[in-house]
Amino acid sequence: MTTTRSSNATGTAATTAGAARLHHPATRRVFRKVKILAAVFAALSAAVLLTVAVLASTGHTVTSFMWGRSGGILAGAAVVCWMTVLASRGARWAYLRVRILSVVMPIAIITVDLIPGICPLWFALAQATCALPLAAAAFLSNGAALRATFPKP
What we know:
Elements: H1 9-22, H2 25-57, H3 64-88, H4 92-113, H5 121-141, H6 144-149
């Protein structure tokens, strides 16, 4: 089953203007930075999960919270990276989700880690370090350059 969308002249003009902005060098530069920050977020998340795995395999105490949290953050990082690529190709829905996730995820990561006794300090600091590149991506993805590229329909 396929769906088609009809658009009026205003919607078509907005889409054409957005497509032109998508290929503008400044827009490409911002998207490149956001993609790099998302990749750094993913790499740091993978490093935390790897650290948990190494600690568990060497007999150190690792809780199920640490396993689930680090695995979940890595999965979230993969989603953010995927949506960032789709957004850079012009998918407005992906761009909107990147905007939301890049703001909400760092806040959620740091807030949960602040709960006393939920995880060791090193783990909380590692997770907070993961959140920093994503927080930086939030400023870029919510900036005027990308918002102008994806105008409201």
